[in-house]
Design a protein that fits this description.
The chain has 462 residues and is of the alpha/beta class. It contains 15 helices and 15 strands. Helix 1 packs parallel to helix 2 and helix 11 packs across helix 12. The chain is elongated.
Length: 462
């Protein structure tokens, strides 16, 4: 076997309509010291017949075809890995195409001391071409790659089709595609390979055209428990890259986690319109990411801090609902920014809202200085402390609740921990939902989806 040898593994399943474009793109530029290994995954007669014709036409070329029963793409790729004789292996799906001239450019990496090479590629959907670029760079270790990936999240890690893998690493660690998972097996394989390999390179050379088609693709069929499966992939990704990273800062790690969580939400919710049957399965998982794990059922408070916002009537309404459980509840309405519904400040609007609904003025504390959530909390606690010192509140324990919009409450908790320290642990977080931002309605409105994603990305917890 030549030391410069590549195995191109092509799994095929009922792809006769695309087979010619795929295999011709490989065979017309395949060097003599490389092989094309086609693994047929139990295809129909038309596809098998087409493959037989290719075997006959290329009898002297480095083309091998393996036929087997239908067992899925991961099984076919694993069969290919078992049979591959190359120093490097790469994968090409049966309906995609190598760029002309790619193998001539790509073979320059064969003699270099790298275990994994990432290439750019083009995504083609409905005739529109989106180029997914990479810069030329060599990383001395997986840790160096992970440090960069935590900052630049667009390194095309997921696909198995834009990479050269050193076969000896695959063999040494018995790396295979997980045949038990319904999707994401390519990500898991890449995560495992990256954790075990040596030097990694990225190249701007464009490897292939990824053709987005209809049919039995992930986007066109129901995937049970989709959000839970996305979370499993998220967990695997975090374990791999946070574990490998050595120099990333805490803020970079936090941003990496929260950005990926927002992508889980975006990807899961993005399927709801086409697959409404997934709402009941995925929404509880997505809601835990967005709103956190808490409940306000039956909560009663001595003091309610009501955080202002430009449109905060539903927060005052929620405070009123909770306050009715205790006839002595004191409301601290806070917020110095202007309210959307008039010339009043947020605090003024909520004060008037409560007064109009029968709350005695002596039970309303007005705090009109705060311009942000941190100031809301600090200034409100100052007022509560003064009330306690004057004997206007129970001395111990004084139950304090904070009412805020559901999207914002996890971040409010974080801020409370930062500005209030240990005292934040005794404060109850109470979510308020508007008519279109409730647990079972928010995803129907694009603006609320974007608000939810933005809030996830702002959080500081790791």
């Amino acid at each position: 076997m030549s030391e410069r040898y590549l195995s191109v593994i092509v799994p095929i399943y009922n792809g006769s309509a695309y087979l010619e474009g795929c295999l011709d793109s490989v065979l017309r530029q395949l060097p003599g010291d490389c092989e094309c290994l086609v693994v047929d995954d139990g295809s129909n007669a038309a596809t098998v017949s087409a493959l037989k014709r290719y075997e006959t036409a290329h009898a002297t070329a480095n083309l091998r075809v393996i036929y087997g029963p239908h067992s899925g793409a991961s099984h076919a790729r694993n069969i290919g890995l078992e049979a591959a004789r190359g120093e490097f292996v790469c994968f090409l799906d049966g309906d995609d195409r190598f760029h002309d001239g790619f193998l001539q450019k790509g073979r320059a990496w064969f003699g270099r001391d790298v275990d994994l090479v990432f290439f750019a590629f083009d995504r083609i959907e409905n005739g529109a071409v989106t180029h997914l670029p990479l810069r030329s760079r060599v990383y001395e270790s997986p840790s160096a790659f992970a440090d960069h990936y935590l900052v630049d999240r667009h390194l095309l890690v997921y696909s198995q089709c834009n990479k050269f893998y050193r076969k000896s690493v695959i063999d040494r660690f018995a790396l295979r595609f997980d045949e038990s998972v319904e999707f994401g097996e390519d990500r898991l394989f890449n995560f495992a390979f990256i954790a075990k390999c040596g030097r990694i390179a990225t190249s701007p050379d464009c490897m292939f055209d990824y053709i987005c088609r209809g049919g039995d693709s992930m986007s066109t069929r129901h995937l049970p428990n989709f959000a839970s499966k996305l979370m499993a992939l998220h967990d695997a990704k975090m374990k791999t890259f946070l574990g490998l990273s050595r120099t990333a800062s805490k803020d970079e790690r936090r941003s990496f986690i929260q950005y990926d969580l927002s992508r889980v939400v975006e990807e899961a919710v993005g399927r709801f319109a086409a697959h409404p049957e997934e709402i009941a399965e995925s929404l509880p998982v997505v809601n835990r990411i967005i709103f956190g794990d808490f409940t306000d059922d039956g909560l009663s408070a001595d003091v309610l801090i009501v955080l202002g916002s430009p449109n905060c009537w539903y927060r005052a309404e929620k405070a009123l609902e909770v306050g009715r459980r205790n006839p002595k509840t004191v409301y601290v309405v806070t917020g110095g920014n202007l309210h959307l519904m008039g010339p009043e400040s947020e605090a003024e609007f909520m004060r008037d809202y409560l007064l109009e609904r029968g709350v005695p003025p002596e039970r309303i504390v007005f705090e009109n200085r705060a311009r942000n959530t941190a100031e809301n909390l600090v200034f409100s606690l100052e007022r509560i402390d003064r009330l306690s010192a004057a004997g206007a509140l129970p001395s111990s324990p004084c139950r304090i609740g904070v009412v805020s919009g559901g999207f914002h409450l996890p971040r409010v908790r974080e801020l409370a921990g930062e500005v209030l320290g240990e005292r934040a642990k005794s404060i109850m977080a109470i979510p308020a939902y508007g008519p279109h931002s409730g647990l079972d309605t928010w995803f129907k409105h694009p603006s609320f989806v974007q608000s939810a994603l933005a809030e996830i990305r702002k959080r500081k917890g790791v």
